[in-house]
Design a protein that fits this description.
This protein is mainly alpha-helical. The chain has one domain (59-249, 259-397). It is built from 12 helices and 2 strands. It has helices spanning 2-64, 74-95, 106-130, 136-142, 146-157, 164-182, 189-213, 222-245, 258-281, 284-305, 313-340, 349-356; strands at 219-220, 396-397. Strands 1-2 form a two-stranded antiparallel sheet. 42% of the residues are buried. Residues 1-15, 344-371 and 378-402 have low confidence and may be disordered. It is a multi-pass membrane protein. It holds the Pfam family TPT.
Length: 402
């Protein structure tokens, strides 16, 4: 009797083990399919982001350049983008009720949204004006200064501590940009001034976003960001437009094509949503690599589309030096982030995120573009140089507890 009981128990254990193995196999098979599908969607979103980001920059250059479409009014073009984006956001929130507006008080709007919109409008104004004077390729090379500008502004505002290793990287980036500028055949002081000023305006906007919004616990998705930021930016842009562009504009000489301006604004709007999708599916490392890849592709494409853009050996050498500094800086930031993170689950972190589609919060994610000159509330915002976590949040959350 005891032997028969033991045999029966053993057979039951085998049967039970087989069921567990079968269940585990089914779960593993489903997880594999889900991960493969997630990876495909992630790379597809990255491709769309790179395509739209590069396309909007080239499109803006083509529209503004006197040699092509000949609409040399960068403030007007940016106002069209802001007006269109704000109108679409209003339609989605107030009419179609796709998302609900956040609880926005007058205090938060006046102390946070207004100053951030002012610097955002300034960065777009100066950045888009640079297209009239310098090439797209040289603009992309100057954008390597973005980490330097953000680091300097963050130190001045007290949100970042001075570090020797980071400072040396910033020096390397600056030296590379100087070499690249020295090798620029069609160097233009005015265009360079506009672009560098736009970069520092964007850096101020990034730091202001951290200082002002993270204390409010304000959570914004791309639609609500457009809803609040775009109209305010439009108002700020109206002042320089009225003083600088309106007196020089002659209606009879303006070449207006509805479909060109509509498609241009639509591309800028689509870029915002592609940024949201990429942010929700990837981490800071992937985003930074994609940004570097986009910059190289954009430099190469601009020389093909705009033959007047000439790249010299000094341009490439200087940009390569600056890029080395940027890559080293990114490595330091990612290393710091990983050192500060503590594992909390037995399941691998990547698989967990793929199953649950969850992202760790960051101290700051900028919902607006980081010096991209694209006239959008998206763009190169992934290169925020005050990120404190490896993964960006799925929603644009500014919380002091993150």
């Amino acid at each position: 009797m005891p032997l028969r009981y033991s045999s029966s128990w053993a057979l039951g254990s085998v049967a039970q083990l087989s069921e567990e193995e079968a269940a585990a196999y089914l779960v593993l098979n489903m997880a594999t399919k889900m991960i493969n599908r997630t990876l495909f969607l992630t790379y597809f979103c990255l491709f769309i982001y790179i395509l739209l980001s590069s396309g909007v920059i080239l499109y803006n250059k083509w529209v503004l350049s006197p040699k092509y479409f000949n609409f040399p009014h960068p403030i007007t073009l940016t106002m069209i983008h802001m007006g269109f984006s704000g109108a679409v956001a209003f339609l989605l929130i107030r009419i179609l009720k796709v998302v609900s507006p956040v609880k926005m008080t007058f205090e938060i709007y006046a102390t946070c949204v207004v100053p951030i919109s002012a610097f955002f409008a300034s960065s777009l104004w100066f950045g888009n004006t640079a297209y009239l004077h310098i090439s797209v390729a040289f603009i992309q090379m100057l954008k390597a200064l973005m980490p330097v500008a953000t680091f300097v502004v963050a130190i001045v505002c007290g949100t970042e501590k001075a570090r020797c290793d980071v400072f040396l990287n910033m020096v390397l980036v600056s030296v590379g940009v100087v070499i690249s500028s020295y090798g620029e055949i069609h160097f233009n002081v005015v265009g360079t001034f506009y672009q560098v000023t736009g970069i520092f305006a964007e850096a101020l906007r990034l730091v202001l976003t951290q200082v002002l919004l993270q204390k409010k616990g304000l959570s914004l998705n791309p639609i609500t960001s457009l809803y609040y930021i775009a109209p305010c930016s439009f108002v700020f842009l109206f002042v320089p437009w009225y003083l600088l562009e309106k007196p020089a504009m002659k209606v009879s000489q303006i070449q207006f094509n509805f479909w060109i301006f509509f498609s241009n604004a639509l591309c800028a709007l689509a870029l915002n949503f592609s940024i949201f999708l990429v942010i929700g599916r990837t981490g800071a490392v992937t985003i930074r690599v994609a940004g570097v890849l986009k910059d190289w592709m954009l430099i190469a494409l601009s020389t093909v589309i705009f033959p007047e853009s000439t790249i010299t050996g000094l341009n490439i050498t200087g940009y390569a030096i600056a890029l080395c500094g940027v890559v080293m800086y990114n490595y330091i930031k990612v290393k710091d982030v990983r050192a500060s993170q503590q594992p909390t689950e037995i399941i691998p972190d990547r698989i967990t995120k793929d199953w649950r589609f969850e992202k760790r919060p960051s101290d700051i994610y900028a919902p607006l573009n980081a010096g991209n000159n694209e006239g959008s509330i998206g763009g190169n915002g992934f290169k925020s140089d005050i990120e404190r976590h490896e993964e960006a949040p799925r929603h644009l959350k500014f919380s002091s507890s993150s």
